[in-house]
Automatic annotation (TrEMBL), chains A, B:
The lineage of its organism: Bacteria, Pseudomonadati, Pseudomonadota, Alphaproteobacteria, Acetobacterales. InterPro entries: Aliph_Amidase/BUP, C-N_Hydrolase, C-N_Hydrolase_sf. CDD domains: DCase (cd07569). Keywords: Hydrolase. GO terms for molecular function: hydrolase activity, acting on carbon-nitrogen (but not peptide) bonds, in linear amides. Residues 5-278 form the CN hydrolase domain. It comes from the Bacteria. Signal peptide: none annotated. This is N-carbamoyl-D-amino-acid hydrolase.
């Protein structure tokens, strides 16, 4: 019995500060309709898909709070849930989460075609800084606005609509950290969904990285980590110029060999599609990357014992 | 003060069972001379550079023992040590090691331009099987002939000839495991040397992998892991047809952005060269991959707690 899921990536062009919630939701709905019309059973939206990438601004109070969702779904987002269920398509959605207890996370959810929330993920690898960088035109203040994700890297067993796929989520910077992928790989993940907002320049203030190099990095880590964990991966950007600050595109769908099978060509709203045969994961999982047979955890101790570098003397 | 090392990869074409030790050593010496003539201060030879890839055969006794080095250097290999020291060039050499206690390892050493052995590494990620695969024309019996490496993944601080580079070694299959790279990355590695003998077909008996795909995998993992650990990497093949069994080439030198800066074009003896500026590692190590600031080991527990997969129910 075939285990093929038609998956869409819904790259989004920029969302300006001035864009209304309604305007943005209309774009999400158009992308959802387009993906469904092409037969997709899952559409992956970007990180922080409902707003501009607000961590580039030093803000506070009501202005900051306006970027957060206080429940999910909520009245603003309910039309997406309703339309997806009517069309029989599930989705991955990234958003800024404010909990009733006052915590703040950079969060994503996976919603199945029947409208049920399969799982939630809170971003573990927050980049940037707590304090603004003096003199910088754009900041990267994720460490200021969000707490570190407290859910680990859970994998979820989907229902029949997705052929009981073992699914996992990441958000943006997580994809550059092989530990994120391995944590999902150790749960047998077959399909990794991730959204991103990645600057088209060095967000840490250096001068050596441009949009071409950063798009290369983004694609490279999706390819290699998909291969090394024998999984499909769908990596989806919010792209283009948001209020003058550039974001890379390059949204892609990668197979368990690390081959790019679909990639966005623009920096705007754009659907990419692939038929993902989950059973293609078996070649890697059963042979080269048969973890039980070939991993040697006794020699990996430093990976969990410490965060930072200790150089040889 | 500039920290540029001119590094060579000395890809080797096939070494047949019938080839004499003298014949093979003459090839190594020619490659060493060529690399030194081009100004290299380090030349990386392949895994098991002194012999054919004998784990493809089911053998025992004297025949098997003949493939192992019982000391290093020994009379057969001393000419390489002597000539390298005279030329002021260091090298990485892979070989089959038999210890005085009767242990057997798939081993590599790094020798500095002054002739001193900077460090030794014993392959941790042994692929293949203990028992031969029935009916297979070629075996992959590394788990039969070698013990798992017992030295972990040590990094070594080189001397002035190599600008005090933090260096590390891997062997072949290790490169497909992000844990190998991360263990070196956590020691601040700036230059990873690795040799390989990788089949041009699926060594585990599948039908879906060919030489093109396997060369892509080999290059991909060097690129992505070099980037994710902000290090240079030099990956060097023994290539071509050994007694009818194909090995991929694709030897490459990769920079800390994951960009291939030199790659072999043949399946034969071939030198590739690059000037490796160790200070290019700082961009990654200080910013995106500042491990102390951004890694979250509390969420990586499964990586060291277990070897194999546990799927969600």
């Amino acid at each position: 019995m075939s285990r093929i899921i038609r998956v869409a990536g819904a790259q989004m062009g920029p969302t300006q500060k001035a864009d209304s919630r309604d305007h943005t939701m209309a774009r999400l709905l158009r992308l959802l309709e387009d993906a469904a019309a092409q037969g997709a059973k899952l559409v992956v939206f970007p990180e922080l898909a409902l707003t501009t990438f607000f961590p580039r601004w030093l803000i506070a109070g009501t202005e900051l709070d306006g970027y957060f969702e206080h429940s999910m779904p909520n009245a603003d987002v309910q039309p997406l849930f309703n339309r997806a269920r009517a069309l029989g398509i599930g989705f991955y959605l990234g958003y800024a989460e404010a909990t009733p207890e006052g915590q703040h996370f950079n969060t994503a959810i996976l919603v199945q075609p029947d409208g049920s929330i399969l799982g939630q993920y809170r971003k573990v690898h927050l980049p940037g800084s707590v304090e603004p960088r003096p003199g910088a035109l754009y900041q990267q203040l994720e460490k200021r606005y969000f707490q570190y994700g407290d859910l680990g890297f859970p994998a979820f067993r989907a229902g029949e609509d997705w052929h009981k796929a073992v699914t996992g989520m990441m958000i943006c910077n997580d994809r550059r950290w092989p530990e994120s992928w391995r944590m999902l790989g150790l749960q047998g993940v077959e399909l990794v969904c991730l959204g991103y907002n990645s600057a088209a320049y060095d967000p840490n203030g250096g001068k050596t990285e441009d949009a071409v190099l950063r798009t290369f990095h983004s694609t490279l880590v999706a390819q290699a980590n998909a291969y090394m964990n024998a999984t499909w991966a769908v990596a989806v950007a919010k792209a283009g110029e948001e209020d003058g600050s550039g974001l890379i595109g390059g949204s892609c769908i990668v197979d368990p060999n690390g081959l790019v099978v679909a990639q966005a060509k623009t920096l705007g709203d754009e659907i990419i599609i692939a038929d993902c045969d989950l059973d293609l994961c078996r070649q890697g999982k059963d042979k080269m990357f048969n973890f039980a047979a070939h991993r040697r955890p006794a020699h990996y101790a430093a990976i969990t014992e410490r965060a930072g570098v200790i150089e040889p003397s």
